[in-house]
Amino acid sequence: MSETIKILLASGVIAGIVSAIISYLTSIRLKKMDFRNEYYKEILKKRLNAYEFIENQIAVMKSVVLDDDGKPFHLIFGQGESKFYEFQQNLMLAISYGLWIDNETHETLDEINNLFFNLNNHVNKKNDSVIEEIGKKYYNRVSELRMKLEKNAKKGLYDLHDIKKVFKSKKRNKKRIIYKE
């Protein structure tokens, strides 16, 4: 064989090997990118699901009625003890998604939980009219917390795509204190 044919065969083999290596590396890189995108989608789904629970809590807290004396109270307090506890159970469900929401929203949910934890003592085994009076007494505080939660949830939804920011901002090893109302 001539020298030219040997060079052509060698360069063909080398080109094939280089081509296979480049193809392999590109394939691995594309698989990693695909995995990262699927992971990102799953995280976004979980975050959206968490914010849906929060949105439901906000909607419940927006329901306000006026009593015959003209004083407002949230509907949570107007449907008896069992509905009050049902709201609190749903609140706990929203809090359980704390890993997927931003810090400010989670802190506001904790504030609401602390308030309702303390209100349990006032509501326990009381008749509906007493519970309504408790609702009137705490109307402003519940409204403030609801507006704060709504503001924080909107901000969190705006930054929904920024997963690194949310996971980076989580405060760990913080002692939880429940204040008595």
Summarize this, please?
With 181 residues, this protein is mostly helical. It has helices spanning 3-62, 80-95, 103-123, 128-137, 139-158, 163-168, and strands spanning 64-66, 72-74.
Overall shape: it is rod-shaped
Strand content: under 5%
Helix proportion range? over 70%
Average pLDDT score:
85
User: Structural class per helix/strand content?
Assistant: mainly alpha
Q: What is the strand arrangement across the widest sheet? A: 1-2
Q: Give the termini separation.
A: 97 Å
What low-confidence regions span 5 or more consecutive residues with pLDDT below 50? Answer: none
Oligomeric state of this protein: single chain
Work out the helix count.
6
Largest sheet: 2 strands, antiparallel
What is the H/E string?
A: HEEHHHHH
Cα Rg: 28 Å
Number of strands: 2
Report on the structure:
The chain is mostly helical. It is built from six helices and two strands, in the order H-E-E-H-H-H-H-H. It starts with a helix and ends in a 13-residue tail after the last helix. The model has no long low-confidence stretch (mean pLDDT 85).
Features:
181 residues; mainly alpha
List the helices and strands and how they pair.
Layout: H1 3-62, E1 64-66, E2 72-74, H2 80-95, H3 103-123, H4 128-137, H5 139-158, H6 163-168
Antiparallel strand pairs: 1-2
